[in-house]
């Protein structure tokens, strides 16, 4: 009822007047000044597959290079079937074959992942809501309490038999996948599936419970590497308070409202209209966007050093290899970038339940 009253008031021009604009300028510089002002203490990041493409993980829907464009070898009825729970129960082989190619631990976190860790170190990150299942957020240093993995994760797995539901850890699942063995429950012999959300499955309960407490307290929403085309994840941009600034870092503008929704005052992002007062877009790769913002904040050298140090530590654990492309990053060169994001749900790097173009 409150929503309807608000809607009718807006349609009749009876709203409560203009919303306070907290940014002194609708630009990356204005965002940086706001972050440094002391009034910005609770930042939420919403991220999709686009933040991981520079790590070498494909998004889902970019023409030619996206995951859905390269699944012909699996002889699927449709590309999305590889993440449909009904198809998986009958034909698990394609999913586990693909899982070997995309399995967590084969890729390094990106500049964008470490930028979020830097926000955490500086006491500014309230939460990261991710559509990805690659676990790179965890690998970069974010802890479980920092994350809402909306489309699930490879971190744990469970038997799909609802009478059993035995849990298995990442090492167990990795051994099964790389031995080309279909994971079966040691207790009841049913299939074991990573805890990623397939089409036809519900999102994790923590997703709903956390957003109700997090978003009303959000001082700044940073959206990165997602097309905001799949619900319910896309709707989160409208759950922050009306005055909360929103920064989009993506290859293209997304999440914008259509004319009817804008008229009713319940639309999404507004970057260009005369009424725009809180939304800013950086168009480019997520890594370049984070580096640009870090530079405005005076954090760029610190961020580059963090990435170089952490990549070197990963290389040392793996027994070799040099950190990739950081020299180009620090000199301002762009990375390979994100395609619109991944699927948006399961392996969107994301999950599946809701997936979409998300790139």
Describe the fold and architecture.
With 359 residues, the protein is an alpha/beta fold. The protein is built from 12 helices and 9 strands. The strands form 2 sheets. A 6-stranded parallel beta sheet has the order 3-2-1-7-8-9, with helices on both faces. It is globular, with a radius of gyration of 21 Å. The two termini are 35 Å apart. The model is unreliable at 1-16, 259-266 and 320-359 (pLDDT under 50).
Fold topology:
Elements: H1 2-11, H2 28-36, E1 43-47, H3 85-90, H4 93-102, H5 111-121, E2 125-130, H6 136-140, E3 147-149, E4 152-159, E5 167-169, H7 170-178, E6 192-196, H8 205-214, E7 220-224, E8 246-250, H9 259-264, E9 279-283, H10 286-297, H11 300-318, H12 326-330
Parallel strand pairs: 1-2, 1-7, 2-3, 7-8, 8-9
Antiparallel strand pairs: 4-5, 4-6
């Amino acid at each position: 009822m409150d929503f309807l009253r608000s809607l009718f008031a807006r349609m009749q021009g009876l709203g409560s007047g203009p919303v306070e604009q907290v940014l002194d300028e609708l630009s990356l510089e204005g965002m940086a000044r706001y972050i440094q002002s002391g009034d910005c203490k609770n930042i939420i990041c919403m991220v999709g597959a686009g933040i991981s493409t520079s790590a070498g993980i494909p998004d889902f829907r970019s023409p030619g290079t996206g995951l859905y464009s390269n699944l012909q070898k699996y002889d699927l009825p449709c590309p999305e079937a590889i993440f449909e729970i009904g198809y998986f129960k009958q034909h698990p082989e394609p999913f586990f074959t693909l899982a070997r190619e995309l399995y967590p631990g084969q890729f390094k976190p990106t500049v964008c992942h470490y930028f979020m860790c830097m926000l955490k170190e500086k006491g500014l990150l309230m939460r990261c809501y991710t559509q990805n299942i690659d676990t790179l957020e965890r690998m970069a240093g974010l802890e479980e309490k920092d994350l809402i993995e909306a489309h699930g994760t490879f971190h744990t797995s469970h038997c799909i038999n609802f009478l059993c539901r035995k849990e298995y850890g990442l090492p167990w699942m990795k051994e099964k996948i790389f031995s080309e063995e279909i994971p079966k429950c040691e207790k009841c012999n049913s299939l074991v599936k990573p805890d990623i959300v397939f089409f036809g499955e519900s999102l994790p309960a923590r997703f709903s419970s956390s957003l109700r407490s997090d978003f009303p307290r959000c001082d700044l929403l940073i959206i990165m590497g997602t097309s905001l085309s799949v619900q319910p994840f896309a709707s989160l941009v409208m759950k922050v308070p009306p005055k909360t600034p929103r920064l989009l870092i993506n290859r293209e503008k997304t999440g914008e409202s259509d004319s009817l929704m804008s008229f009713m005052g319940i639309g999404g992002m507004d970057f260009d209209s005369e009424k725009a007062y809180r939304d800013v877009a950086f168009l480019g790769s997520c890594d370049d966007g984070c580096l640009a913002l870090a530079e405005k904040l005076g954090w760029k050298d610190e961020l580059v050093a963090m990435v170089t140090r952490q990549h070197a530590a990963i290389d040392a654990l793996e027994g070799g290899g040099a950190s990739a492309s950081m020299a180009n990053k620090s000199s301002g060169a762009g990375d390979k970038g994100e395609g619109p994001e991944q699927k948006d749900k399961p392996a969107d790097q994301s999950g599946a339940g809701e997936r979409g173009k998300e790139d």
